[in-house]
Design goal:
The protein is built from 15 helices and nine strands. The chain has 318 residues and is an alpha/beta fold. Helix 5 packs parallel to helix 10 and helix 8 packs across helix 11.
Length: 318
């Protein structure tokens, strides 16, 4: 029994640190203070509090801010959050995937609808409805998008386009203040899409090139612009929602200046399989993509819940 007691009742040393404490709902409800209470809540709530602190430091120190997000983020209502940031010039550059470009314009031409995760794919296919999680997109939206995109490609086919230039032109031509890229065009915020052919835009370019075999798109100018944009910046910060090519492109661009000074990752990917999507900031430090002394945090979870809270605490004027 003495051995058992020693094992269970092992003496410990006192440690410094904040006491774990949650929000006291006996007091008058204040949503700002509720989010502030995450600092001492523990688990991902405290990581979220660290992310808010890191982004506020980015802003305080006038860091050049990269915003990256995957296509499913634009499928969701986060599209309107990104639009707000672009409209008010609160970020300096955007990197996203093909879906993150096209679905902004698709929404200008027709709304997406809330559905269910467990809906029958076969039944939806019969009705011409595409499912993105629990978001439904009637195929008519893409038909409208095809007409819009092909008319733009026809209009500018004599120019040597880059993906970023095409995105800027689409933002100009859509002429809709609900669009993220309309505001990026207006506010001269560069938008890069390293995998622009991987989506409906790729389909449209395929159809267009089938009839215009001499049509070309230059991609090397964009990689030069993206990587060079970090050079000479006193401070850079990365806010990256999701993983894949978006995450890697932003991190790799910051490698050219020996790493970002601030980094916030928001995704649900684990690290065990060695994927870049799941990699935490410490791995990026090993490559020199984030500086060794940088403020960096990863918040595990759903960005549709987490990111609006961050924007509320870091970007919305009080």
């Amino acid at each position: 029994m003495d051995m058992a007691k020693k094992a269970i009742l092992k003496r410990s040393r006192e440690i410094e640190g904040k006491n774990i404490k949650g929000y006291d709902f006996n007091q008058t409800l204040n949503y700002g203070e509720l989010i502030d209470s995450f600092q001492t809540t523990g688990f991902q709530a405290s990581n979220l509090a660290d992310a808010i602190k890191t982004i506020n430091e980015m802003k305080k120190n006038n860091a050049f801010i990269f915003l990256g997000y995957t296509s499913n983020m634009v499928s969701s209502g986060l599209r309107d959050v990104f639009r707000y940031l672009a409209e008010h010039k609160m970020i300096d550059v955007i990197v996203t995937s093909a879906g993150g470009i096209e679905e902004d314009f698709v929404k200008c031409l027709g709304s997406f609808k809330l559905g269910k995760f467990d809906s029958s794919g076969a039944e939806l296919r019969k009705k011409g409805i595409n499912r993105i999680g629990n978001i439904f997109v009637p195929n008519s939206r893409y038909i409208n998008f095809e007409k819009f995109t092909l008319s733009i490609l026809e209009k500018y086919k004599s120019e040597m386009l880059t993906p970023s230039k095409l995105i800027s032109i689409l933002g100009k031509e859509i002429d809709n203040p609900e669009s993220i890229y309309y505001w990026c065009y207006k506010n001269k915020i560069p938008v890069f899409c390293p995998a622009i052919l991987d989506g409906s835009l790729g389909d449209m370019i395929y159809f267009f090139k089938s009839k215009n075999r001499n049509f070309k798109m230059e991609i090397t100018d964009d990689i030069w612009e993206l990587n060079s944009i970090t050079l000479g910046k006193k401070k850079t910060g990365m806010i990256i929602l999701g993983g894949g090519v978006v995450k890697h492109s932003i991190c790799n661009a910051n490698l050219y200046r020996n790493g970002a000074d601030y980094a916030v990752y928001i995704n649900s990917n684990p690290e065990f399989d060695g994927s870049d999507s799941g990699a935490n900031p410490e791995e990026a430090k090993s490559w020199g993509k984030i500086r060794s002394n940088a403020n960096a945090v990863k918040v595990f979870g759903d960005a549709t819940i987490i990111f609006p809270l961050i924007v509320a605490k870091c970007f919305v004027k009080k």
